[in-house]
Amino acid sequence: MISIFPSATAVDLSRIRLEIRSLQPRLVEWRRKLHQRPELGFKENLTAEFISQKLSEWGITHQTGIAKTGIVATIEGKKQDSSLQKPKVLAIRADMDALPIQEENDVPYRSQHDGMMHACGHDGHTAIALGTAYYLSQHREAFSGSVKIIFQPAEEGPGGAKPMIEAGVLTNPDVDAIIGLHLWNNLPLGTLGIRTGALMAATESFICKIYGKGGHGAIPHQTVDSIVVGAQIVNALQTIVSRNVNPIESAVVTVGRFQAGKAVNVIADTAEIGGTVRYFNPELGKLIPQRIEQIIAGICASHGAKYELDYKGLYPPVINNADIAELVRSVGLDIVETPLGIVPECQTMGGEDMSFFLQAVPGCYFFLGSANPELGLAYPHHHPRFDFDETVLGMGVEMFVRCVEKFYA
Description:
Blueprint: H1 18-36, H2 45-57, E1 61-66, E2 70-76, E3 89-95, H3 122-138, E4 146-152, H4 161-166, E5 177-188, E6 192-193, E7 197-200, E8 202-211, E9 215-216, H5 226-244, E10 251-260, E11 266-267, E12 270-279, H6 284-303, E13 306-315, E14 318-320, H7 322-333, E15 342-343, H8 354-360, E16 363-371, H9 391-407
Parallel strand pairs: 3-4, 3-5, 5-16, 6-15
Antiparallel strand pairs: 1-2, 2-4, 6-16, 7-14, 8-12, 8-13, 9-11, 10-12
């Protein structure tokens, strides 16, 4: 039997309207079905089929096959508002892809797809968006414009937001603002992370191939040691954040891969290093890659080595609009209770392609605390035992519904 509210004492459920509380068993059912059938980016065919089936069942107009597997549902409000020349449009975004991780949870709803798992909460995001769509379709009199609900593929990579935008999901009708949430096991159930400005970091990566001259390990003067060159590059890259970035700013340059050589008595002629770059301030998007190449070029030149650098900007920082963030915060104050409440300075160096939506239209992305250590539901995101307190599903629907109502008030 599904436990509807396993930790009801952790939150004040009276702040969630009765109709959404009664929807909770279905939210859990949807989430668990999605959890059992995880799919990787741009391959979310079963997930998209399930979403489309539910939307059709509820009579909600929607488009499928956007950016391969994406779906956009449009719900028209019936509330009259003669003060508006053009009806407003609010978008709600939910990602729906899984990760290439083998699940280790021993639960009835564990993944049935080997090597794939919803280890980041996207199954919850999708269930919350479905619940929001259902509720709004039953209460069209509560808002005057339109609500677009965007079910996005491939957030974990290579990124589905940008191709969905390019396919026109923010037009016809034009979206005025967008909101989205991320279930967050770094915060306890009943907590919200909402802030103006940068919430999540830009995500960039680099791979550098170093070409030296191989030779005998006992005769190094005849070689250009690619490992020595690479080691100096790794050390020097650490000075970018410590000596080139303003200490008030936050940034990360991490080398996560260093591969070279096959024998202990052979000096490797090539080496490869790869890493990730994170920052909040968009201006650092020029400084950091420039300094990375300057350091690599200088060290290689000093040793007589050559290099190839492949630097990729993946996702820009997630930057919230002040007005929409304040709307979400004001709604949150009506839902969460003290002393948990709202964490206004919650940030992470993790990345999210919700950033592309926020570059296109004003919006707010926020964290919804989902951890419950007492139930063993506090493993971090991307862990093979990640899971969350499903009480959060009803809270997520309540947040979205209230944001819609307030946006059109």
